[in-house]
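Entry for the shared binder. Reason: the reviewer on the internal report wants the predicted structure included alongside the sequence.
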Amino acid sequence: MIEARETNAPQAAPASGGRDPRPGGPARRLPSPKVLFAAAAALVVVVAAVVAALVLTGGDDKKTAAGSPQLQPVAYTPDYDVDGLAKLARRDADRRPLTEAEVFGADARTVRTGQYSFTLAGSQVSADCNAVTWGQRLQADLAKHGCSQIARGAYVSADRQHVGQFIVINLNDVEGARQILRDLDPATDAGFVRPLEAKGGPAFAKGFSAAYARAFGHYATVVWVQRAGGAQPANLNEMINVSLPVEKPADFVWGRLQMAGDR
C-alpha cells in the first residue's frame, strides 16, 4: 500500500503490500494500489507545499561538518513490512556484502517506467555508515543495529527535469531496518542519508522532495526523488510515478532471497 503524507504528520502504522514477494518477482511497486490513493495524495501535497515553503524561506541551511547541506524529504512514506521475506529477516543467513555491480548492475543503469526515463549518474557502496549520513540519533541507531554498508545511486532523468537517489542500508535484522525507517522520518529530526552527487547532472537541492522507504528483511531501502532544483511538483502522484524507475535497483533483494542460507 502506498501512503503519502507530509513529514509533520503522526507516525504511520506499519503497512504492507505493493510488491510481488516471489523470488525473482518484480521489486517495483504495482501501479493499481497507488491509483486508489490519488485523491489523498493530491490533498497531502497542499499541506506539504506549506512545509516546503517554510523550508525554502526559513533560516540558513543545516550543514554537515564537511559543509554539505543536511537535506531531508518533505513527503515521506514508510513501509515496514514486505511479505515473503522471512528468510532475509537476519543477516546471519545473508552474510555476503553488497557490491555496486549487484545493486547497480547493467539492468539498473538506464531505467524507465511510463513516461519517465532515468540514467545512473553515479554509485557508491560505503562501509562507513557515519560518513554518508548525518544526525546523531540516526548514526547511533545505525551503530546499534549493525549497519555494515550503505549503497547509494544517483539518477538523472533523460530530460534533466527530475533527479533521484536509490539507497540501501545493510543491517543486522529486520527490526533494525524498521527502526532506521522510523529514524529517517523527518518528523523525528533524527537525521538522513546524504544524497550522492550526480556527476554532470543536477544536484539534490533544498526544496520539495519525496522519499519512499521500505524494510526488505534486514535491508532498509529508500527511493528519494525531486524535480531538479527542488521545485514544487504538480502533485504527489508525479513523485510516485517518478519514483518507480528509480526503484529498479531494489530487484537485487529477490536474488538475495533465493540464495539466503547458502554459504
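Summary line for the report: The chain has one domain: 31-259.
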